[in-house]
Design brief:
The chain is α/β, with parallel strands linked by helices. The chain has ten helices and eight strands. It binds phosphoenolpyruvate (PEP).
Length: about 250
Amino acid sequence: MRPLLYAANWKMHLPPAEARAFAERFLALTSPVSGRSLWFFPPAVSLEGTAVALRGRPDIRVGAQDVHWEPKGAFTGATSVPLAAGAGAAGALVGHSERRHVFGETDAETGRKVQALLGAGLTALLCVGEKLDQREAGQTEAVCLRQLRAGLEGVTGGAWERVVIAYEPVWAIGTGRNATPEDAAQVHRAIQAELARLGAPGRRPVLYGGSVNAGNAAALTAQPEVDGVLVGGASLDVEGWAGIVGRG
Ligand code: PEP
């Protein structure tokens, strides 16, 4: 069976006690499914509790929603890669649409964050995606590939093994609208081709994200180009999330 990856982005939800309770209930509802792996991205304060609660499941990893590129220093409010790793993170999201478009993160900053993660031996889950006006102007692939090149500049050798991409059209995130499976597959093909041009030695997982739910997840992952999903809102309900990932 083709490997699939299911990632939950809890955004600014689930404080430590609720995150731990979610994790415990999730463990009770599910068991590992062959070929499926999972990531949970809790808020920073809930990272350690979630990681501890889920550590008995080798198919599950926990990551940070964002990291700073510097390892330490006077960066009030930021989480460095060593801080995240110390709390149990095996990786982090980088360049999520809300980081880019709410907090003004640049392409160059995403590249520094990816380098910081890979340099420390962690996984970088780099998010790319176009805004609605860019899609309507026919710029979808140009925008995604520009973000990809900037985010992955300088990645070499074995570090490629720790790169995961999520294609998340900005207009689909949290809106209830999503790309058709065929549209997603077309962008995923362009991303795989660019990854090969950038020197990735083999196929890297490319996830789709943007209003994925129990009703559309299977149709998206049925596309051979879609290696899994990154899910925000629908990952906050433990029963619903267990249903999406498969109960095993
Ligand atoms: C996300 O946060 O990455 C996301 C895709 O959110 P939602 O599933 O709520 O659209």
